[in-house]
Amino acid sequence: MPGAVVPTVRIQAEDFDVAVEIARMTQGRADIGAVVTFSGLCRDEAGRLAALELEHYPGMAEAEIGRIAAEAVHRWPLQGLTAIHRHGRITPGENIVLVVATSAHRQAAFEAANFLMDYLKSRAPFWKKEHHTDGSQGGWVDAKEADDEAASRWKQAVPKRN
Amino acid sequence: MSTRLIYFAWVRERIGKPQEDVELPAGIETVADLLRWLKSRGEEYEHALQYPDVIRVAINQEHVEHREKISGAREIALFPPMTGG
């Protein structure tokens, strides 16, 4: 039923378990035909990076991802939507972000997950600072223009559902 | 009425504090006015807000444009473009 899906949004320091999050959304249901997950992990940048420090704006981080998730639920016929974003110190190989979208058919789940990630990257109030393995001063990661462009392509791409 | 200003990432580092409560002088009506006023408050603000166009702003935890009016804002956050995900 459109409009009845309430997205789950969590901002946390601790890691998440992808399988647990999928199970949470699918257990006891027989109406879900597609589960799409996206996990974003911390890279080591060819050995250069020791860790990322993720700063966030408490309160607004939840609110903004909640607004983006609500928009996704409005645009696509989803059965469920979960977004989890970590903050604090994260080392290479660790999870940073998770999006899980469930729907009756795959297209809605793929597109909603993609949309959520594109908007999250340019609008969710998080900032990454690099810590280097050689002890040199790391800096704040620069925002990529490509991320803004990725978000803007959704402005025309999908008509809103009524 | 005082307004809480909150800073993040390199804006926070350059200004040298995470937040402060300020009394906005008369005539500060928009976000752009606020940035111009803040920039005149000292070297650290000048350094942080040297290129005001790149500064992103949220009023009461929602993104706004620089032309937005700030009347009634309890909390105004200033930060660089976001790099989450």
UniProtKB/TrEMBL annotation, chain A:
Q: Does the record carry ATP-binding as a key word? A: no
Short name of any one Pfam family annotated for the protein: MoaE
Q: Does the keyword Thylakoid apply?
A: no
Q: Which residues cross the membrane?
A: none
Q: Which reaction does it catalyse?
A: 2 [molybdopterin-synthase sulfur-carrier protein]-C-terminal-Gly-aminoethanethioate + cyclic pyranopterin phosphate + H2O = molybdopterin + 2 [molybdopterin-synthase sulfur-carrier protein]-C-terminal Gly-Gly + 2 H(+)
Any idea which UniProt keywords this protein has? Molybdenum cofactor biosynthesis
Location of the region described as Disordered in the Swiss-Prot/TrEMBL record: 130-162
| GO function terms (MF aspect) | molybdopterin synthase activity
What the entry lists under CDD domains is as follows: MoaE
Q: Name one GO biological process term.
A: Mo-molybdopterin cofactor biosynthetic process
Describe which pathway this protein belongs to, using the record's wording: Cofactor biosynthesis; molybdopterin biosynthesis
List its EC numbers.
2.8.1.12
Question: Subunit composition?
Answer: Heterotetramer of 2 MoaD subunits and 2 MoaE subunits. Also stable as homodimer. The enzyme changes between these two forms during catalysis.
Family per UniProt?
Belongs to the MoaE family.
Purpose: Converts molybdopterin precursor Z into molybdopterin. This requires the incorporation of two sulfur atoms into precursor Z to generate a dithiolene group. The sulfur is provided by MoaD.
Q: Which PANTHER family does the record associate with it?
A: MOLYBDOPTERIN SYNTHASE RELATED
Q: What is this protein's record name?
A: Molybdopterin synthase catalytic subunit
From TrEMBL, chain B:
Task: Show the NCBIfam families listed in the entry.
Answer: moaD
* Organism from which the protein derives: Mesorhizobium temperatum
Q: What's the protein here called?
A: Molybdopterin synthase sulfur carrier subunit
Instruction: Report the gene name.
Output: moaD
InterPro entries with a match to the protein in the record: Beta-grasp_dom_sf, Mopterin_synth/thiamin_S_b, ThiS/MoaD-like
Q: Which domain of life is it from?
A: Bacteria
